[in-house]
Amino acid sequence: MTRILAVDDEPLYQHLYKVNLEKEGYDVVTSSNGEDALDMVTSRHPDLVVLDVMMPRLDGITTCERIRQFSNVPIIIVTARGEENDRVRGLNVGADDYMVKPFSATELIARVRAVLRRSQTSEQPTQSRYFVHGNLKIDFARAEVWKDNKPVFLSATEYRLLIQFAHHVGEVMTAEELLVAIWGSAYREDKEILWVSIARLRQKLEDNPHMPQHIVTRAGLGYLMPPL
Amino acid sequence: MNQISTKPDVIKPEYLYTIGNIITQATEWKPALDEISQLVHSIIIFDNLAVYLSDSKNNSVDVMYARAMGRGRKAEADVSWGETLANQIIACNQTILREPSPDPNQDRLQQAYMLGIPLTAQKNCLGAIIFIRFGGPSFDTANQKMAEFIAGQITLLIQCQNLQLEYQKLEVQQAQAQIQENFISTITHELRNPLGFIKGYTTTLLRSDTTWDQTTQQEFLEIIDHETDRLEELIENLLDSARLQSGQLKMQFQPVYADSLINTVITRARLHYPDLVINIEMNKNVPPIIGDPGRLAQMLENLISNAVKYAPNSDVVIEVHKEKEYACISVKDHGPGIPEQYIDHLFERFYRLPNQAPNVHGSGLGLYICKQIVQAHQGFISATSLMGQGTSFDVRLPLKS
């Protein structure tokens, strides 16, 4: 049976989603905050997530971003009328569609059906939320990094750089590619920033930063995280 | 007889360093000018010193500083002499050296020699500084250079102080803008929720592709009804708050009897909250209050609905007694209580206790409105609370004398 995860901090909205979508024959599970939602994506394997943007603590956009770190599950973000920024941001971080509150029950059902129809034609694996590389472990859902089972604290940039490698294991990426992906096209030529960040990452993650095993340099070509 | 030694056109660097130092250490220009005038008195030699600043709004010039260096004249009494010169300096933004017109009748020692320098920063003339010397000789070039130097430095200080004031004003404005913005986003959120539920549940019932059983229909209709009430209450609160802000909330004062007021309030409360247990402790001999019965009832109902919302399952006690010339009405609950650090903020507009559960809604306006109503009655409202035991909201209203 198709399972839908509905995320909203308002119990009445959770109830609204449940009564309408269960009538359509879907199995509906609910969550009231972003952190729980992340856990439920990995534990309950929903076929679709309906995600409210306005939530306290971990907001909807960040939750969407984090889900996309490890899953292609279709996501419909739910925003307030007039908040065009939210819609754009949501779509930019990987939402498949959006819906505006207040919405009618029929609109909800129509959107859910449309997004499910589109996604059924393509593969949608939910990868593991964990990534392991030797003594290095990344929890995508919580954005946490562990070395030898001890937590490692990375800056936001260092984390983004690391997961870029984690998502491209075995692929050599040029300095330019990395700079544009992490810092933006304005930094395309700014090699120093990349060197410094890689050096810092190696300091934090490698047993011997001078003989790195996680982030390896390929002279003249770029950098990669070698397959194990 | 001229004991003033004429110095060559050179100013000793030490004086400049010291003046520079005074300026950088100073937080205010007047004490700095005190120090500087003490320092340079022996070089420039002047009897009086005055600073005039133009008031850009009134287009007038005010004397902001005056100092007499001796020779027996009181600066304060004579500053009018500088005003004309100050206006001239400001008009042409240039140094003016004024010598007294020869007057055989006037004692030579009384004749005023004046050196006036504009206080200019970035082509903007703020005013003038005027040195006066009685009995001559005239100020020489070295004096003029030194005076111009001092004028420049003092202008920087004055500008700095002015900018500080402007900055503080901007900070206040920004704080107010922030409150406005928080207000708008809170209200938007609070208004949208009931609307969203009403739309959601009505369209659910209206679905043509399915039917709902009787119990479910009833359940949805009750939700719609409840949310409509919530929306209405919110809109009323918003309007009241706006009217109170602009002083437009009209109140009709008349004698109000406490027992009648409380009875009205309790009857309505029992309708809205049928499960609520309300106990009354009322002293029957309380003389009438001067007030607007509708607004007083609104205020008390607000306190009761707060108790229902924030101290669910608690009973409510309404206590009335007379204290000197006031009627004291307390609305008490035995709920979780309010932490001490938040009590002072309770009556602030849009204030809500942090860490509320997600489905406990509020605009932060209720207590603000209560306070405004009570204050309009020349009364007082306060709150006391004990964690784990309960909260009491105490209102004192003046009695008819």
Account of the protein in words:
- The complex is a heterodimer of chains A (228) and B (401).
- Chain A has 228 residues and is of the alpha/beta class.
- Chain A folds into two domains: 3-120, Response regulator (Rossmann fold), CATH 3.40.50; 130-224, Winged helix-like DNA-binding domain superfamily/Winged helix DNA-binding domain (Arc Repressor Mutant, subunit A, Orthogonal Bundle), CATH 1.10.10.
- Chain A has helices at residues 11-23, 34-44, 60-70, 84-92, 105-120, 156-166, 175-182, 191-205, and strands spanning 3-7, 27-31, 48-52, 75-80, 97-101, 130-133, 136-139, 144-147, 150-152, 216-218, 222-224.
- Chain A has a five-stranded parallel beta sheet, with helices on both faces. A four-stranded antiparallel beta sheet of chain A has the order 6-7-8-9, covered by helices on one side. In chain A, strands 10-11 form a two-stranded antiparallel ribbon.
- In chain A, helix 2 (34-44) runs parallel beside helix 3 and helix 6 (156-166) crosses helix 8.
- Chain B is of the alpha+beta class and 401 residues long.
- Chain B folds into three domains: 13-168, GAF domain (Beta-Lactamase, 2-Layer Sandwich), CATH 3.30.450.40; 171-245, Helix Hairpins (Orthogonal Bundle), CATH 1.10.287.130; 254-398, Histidine kinase-like ATPase, C-terminal domain (Heat Shock Protein 90).
- Helix content of chain B is 48%, strand content 21%.
- Chain B contains ten helices and twelve strands.
- Chain B has helices at 13-25, 29-44, 75-78, 80-92, 141-206, 214-245, 258-272, 293-310, 340-343, 366-376; strands spanning 48-55, 60-68, 96-98, 112-121, 124-134, 254-256, 278-282, 289-291, 316-323, 326-333, 380-386, 390-398.
- In chain B, strand 1 (48-55) and strand 2 form a beta hairpin.
- Chain B is elongated, with a radius of gyration of 36 Å.
- Chain B starts with 12 loop residues before the first helix and ends with a strand.
- Residues 1-5 of chain B have low confidence and may be disordered.
- The interface between A and B is medium-sized, with 21 and 20 residues.
